[in-house]
Amino acid sequence: xxxxxxxxxxxxxxxxxxxxxxxxxxxxxxxxxxxxxxxxxxxxxxxxxxxxxxxxxxxxxxxxxxxxxxxxxxxxxxxxxxxxxxxxxxxxxxxxxxxxxxxxxxxxxxxxxxxxxxxxxxxxxxxxxxxxxxxxxxxxxxxxxxxxxxxxxxxxxxxxxxxxxxxxxxxxxxxxxxxxxxxxxxxxxxxxxxxxxxxxxxxxxxxxxxxxxxxxxxxxxxxxxxxxxxxxxxxxxxxxxxxxxxxxxxxxxxxxxxxxxxxxxxxxxxxxxxxxxxxxxxxxxxxxxxxxxxxxxxxxxxxxxxxxxxxxxxxxxxxxxxxxxxxxxxxxxxxxxxxxxxxxxxxxxxxxxxxxxxx
Length: 359
Known about the structure:
About 35% of the residues lie in helices and about 20% in strands. It is α/β, with parallel strands linked by helices.
């Protein structure tokens, strides 16, 4: 794995340029962290300083491919459109290796400093594109002119060895939470896009309801009935989810929301946003969909599920079952199969921007 580190990031000189790490504590992974120059993204007429960063990023990766990796790669996988995806395509063309950008940025925002015309040139020779939502697949078609058969959709997966339902009463006792409240949980960065502050407004003063918020940010929730509001280590997230009754996240846009998939794996019904970006992971059996900016709609959805425990039970069971189709290891196998099919020119694979891989 090649993970370039900007020279100007605080503490970057303390990061080793090469290290062997272990995936799941078992599989050895060589990780190269060459340095590159990041020049931010300042616009000067038609030119943006992000082009300096991309050129330096490519140079850093090129050094590793030429001098540090002994065996020739079968494919180059670039995570996110920029800088990783663009670098993978450019270097793939240089080295004669098929390249696949993985697009997970919610609105293709990383493309903005380069513009759509330049981006179309950057990605013209890609062997294929992978996205984590049908919504992003449609944006690739619209903004970059990518043909549908070059796009595979692979919603984010969850590690079911970590995310599964624990005993609710035991988890509430562990975290000193009340048994007589409907606990609404929101796990997200606390900004306007994700909307924890809107969840706080929706539950404020709501009888029988208390809130749990996992995360930090510039726009935190405000309500008297918030029981907990801070970040927790990732290995404890599943326990906090298991202590709650509902997962609420009114995002205005997403690539594919990991937190929602993790919540469903722990058996939580979801109150989530209307919008194509959630269509791959939410359906009416597992979620109530609302206008993410409508505080009253969020509040009404919470109230409705508070007052209908039988529906919550049905949704909880359905959420757990639905989440099994979003297994992280199965997702990786589907992605590898898609890349193999694209490299060998096989038609009719499980790609296409309107398809949903977990069935």
